């Protein structure tokens, strides 16, 4: 399927969502739409795997087209079901009972034959607790099938769900059902819902082009980026992972087998569920990722609290787009927290450096961290200045990238990317001023592939370019009181053109002579006509 067809599928599904959500706002309807798309993916993937597994024994449903082939096989092989499901768990890591398959649900919705609402509730419960080896409890917790927004009573809600699912099934039927296509459609819809959510979008969505920059940076060799991409990452971590799109971008860069395991953390329950669905929908097996629901700043993930240095987790790559200037209340003992004690605590008014230090603490010695932050972290004083100075003095800040304004749905302010390393070779900081390089849009600006490639290439080869990129010595930064404001080091002012006074004077003399000659010629014509001449 071409990129154009994939985008067309996304637009088709978005049009359905826009048409059907009725009294619901975009955020509410998002959970239904994306969950049904997720169920479709799981079902198609599972049915394809069962067909391959059963081979010639896979039933032909030509005489019963309204029943999925797997339903027919279950009916005819009741004694073999347990062994079959055990085998499928080994092959695709999950099982879906025939009544809960999308094909069964869609047919029930189309014919309105049966209790669709009850079947969905049972199906969601089965997927959460029994489908996978590891449980995905609460995966559908944000989908209220008994919501008054679906209907005033049970019958109305059941009927509304029949309409929604039938329309989605009709929309999907026009397109390929492969996982890449559905994954792209899912990402497209997340972006569209983010666009309609305004500031709320910042909770779960990082624009794809910015994700691409961070992903490209952290997958390059940490010590020698110019040598190219690493062959393998044991782990990648996003401690404010939202819908997981940034982590998936890193995986896309490395290829499906290029990362050992993906780790994410998210505090918002709705977004946490989106992230888990997004991973599975993009073909990441449940054994290949771990998303934790909890507060990053409180560090309440037990895995990260490991005291034994030999067992403590550290990550090859850390990426993040945390909430900007988030207000937090560090506890009395937080100053002794291993993440912060060498640097000090970020101010209550802005937790930007608290997020940064959290991720940096869990970075491997040869790893790379790329984090999106507001420009204030580059120059604000007080506690933030002390943290910034310590990071600089220890040689951990590698690159500062200034991005254009109005790239995010959640804010119009310009942001920056900080690249950090625990061990970096260059004894300088690379500044990249990409703020003026963007494609202007009506509501939002964007970055073209050329803009992205220029940023990544400049970082990779540490290239300097007038008005765009410069390597700045630590001595110069120290002389500027450790202020990292990009405009201090890269001038974007256009120099005034030097004026050659002799040349200007000669041109004025020549013009004056031309005026005198033209006036004389004109007066000669006027004299012949007997008209008064010009002075």
Summarize the structure.
With about 525 residues, the protein is an alpha/beta fold.
Low-pLDDT residue intervals, each spanning 5 or more residues: 198-204
The total of helices stands at 16
> Main beta sheet: strand number and arrangement?
9 strands, mixed
Helix content: 40-55%
From the spread of the alpha carbons, the general shape counts as globular
User: Approximately how much beta-strand content do the residues carry?
Assistant: 5-15%
N/C terminus separation: 78 Å
Order of helices and strands: HHHHHHHHHEHEHEEHEHEEEHEHH
User: Mind telling me the C-alpha Rg?
Assistant: 30 Å
Helix/strand-derived class? alpha/beta
Mean pLDDT across all amino acids: 89
Give the topology, please:
Blueprint: H1 3-20, H2 26-54, H3 69-76, H4 81-92, H5 102-111, H6 116-131, H7 154-173, H8 179-195, H9 208-219, E1 233-238, H10 245-254, E2 259-266, H11 269-281, E3 289-293, E4 315-320, H12 352-361, E5 363-374, H13 383-393, E6 397-402, E7 415-420, E8 428-433, H14 449-461, E9 469-473, H15 474-479, H16 501-528
Parallel strand pairs: 1-2, 1-4, 2-3, 4-5, 6-8
Antiparallel strand pairs: 5-7, 6-7, 8-9
Helix pairs in contact: 1-7, 1-8, 2-8, 2-11, 5-7, 9-10, 9-14
What are the salient characteristics of this protein?
nine-stranded mixed beta sheet, alpha/beta, 535 residues, single chain, 9 strands, 44% helix, globular
């Amino acid at each position: 399927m071409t990129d154009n067809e994939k985008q067309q599928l996304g637009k088709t599904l978005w049009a359905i969502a826009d048409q059907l959500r009725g009294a619901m706002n975009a955020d509410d309807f998002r959970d239904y739409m994306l969950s049904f798309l997720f169920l479709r993916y799981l079902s198609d993937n599972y049915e394809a795997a069962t067909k391959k597994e059963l081979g010639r024994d896979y039933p032909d449903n030509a005489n019963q087209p309204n029943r999925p082939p797997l339903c027919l096989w279950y009916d005819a092989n009741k004694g073999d079901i347990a062994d079959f499901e055990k085998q499928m768990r080994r092959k695709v890591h999950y099982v879906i009972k025939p009544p809960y398959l999308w094909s069964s649900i869609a047919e029930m919705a189309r014919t309105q034959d049966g209790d669709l609402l009850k079947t969905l509730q049972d199906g969601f419960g089965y997927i959460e607790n029994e489908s996978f080896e590891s449980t995905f409890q609460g995966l559908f917790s944000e989908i209220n099938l008994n919501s008054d927004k679906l209907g005033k009573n049970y019958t109305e809600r059941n009927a509304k769900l029949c309409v929604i699912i039938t329309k989605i099934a009709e929309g999907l039927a026009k397109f390929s059902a492969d996982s890449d296509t559905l994954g792209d459609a899912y990402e497209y819809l997340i972006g569209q819902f983010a666009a309609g959510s305004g500031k709320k979008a910042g909770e779960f969505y990082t624009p794809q082009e910015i994700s691409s920059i961070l992903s490209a940076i952290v997958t390059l060799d940490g010590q020698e980026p110019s040598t190219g991409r690493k062959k393998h990452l044991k782990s990648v971590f996003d401690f404010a992972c939202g819908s997981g799109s940034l982590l998936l971008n890193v995986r896309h860069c490395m290829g499906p087998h290029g990362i050992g395991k993906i780790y994410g953390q998210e505090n918002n329950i709705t977004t946490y569920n989106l992230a888990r669905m997004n991973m599975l929908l993009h073909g990441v097996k449940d054994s290949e990722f771990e998303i934790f629901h909890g507060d990053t700043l409180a560090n309440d993930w037990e895995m990260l609290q490991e005291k034994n240095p030999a067992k403590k987790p550290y990550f090859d790559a850390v990426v993040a787009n945390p909430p900007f200037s988030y207000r937090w209340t560090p506890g009395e003992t937080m100053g002794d927290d291993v993440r912060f004690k060498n640097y000090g605590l970020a101010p209550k008014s802005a937790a930007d450096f608290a997020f940064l230090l959290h991720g940096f603490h869990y970075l491997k010695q040869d790893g790379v961290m790329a984090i999106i932050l507001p420009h204030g972290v580059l120059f604000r004083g007080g506690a933030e200045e002390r943290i910034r100075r310590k990071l600089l003095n220890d040689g951990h800040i590698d690159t500062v990238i200034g991005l254009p304004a109005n790239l995010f749905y959640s804010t119009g302010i310009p942001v920056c990317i900080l690249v950090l390393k625990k061990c970096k070779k260059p004894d300088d900081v690379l500044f990249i001023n990409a703020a003026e390089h963007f494609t202007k849009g009506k509501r939002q600006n964007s970055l073209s592939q050329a803009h992205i490639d220029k940023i990544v290439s400049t970082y990779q080869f540490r290239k300097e370019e007038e008005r765009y990129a410069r390597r700045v010595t630590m001595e110069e930064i120290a002389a500027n009181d450790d202020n990292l404001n990009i405009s201090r080091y890269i001038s974007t002012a256009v120099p005034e053109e030097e004026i050659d006074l002799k040349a200007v004077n000669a041109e004025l003399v020549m013009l004056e002579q031309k005026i005198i000659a033209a006036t004389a010629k004109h007066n000669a014509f006027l004299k012949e006509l007997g008209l008064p001449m010009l002075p």
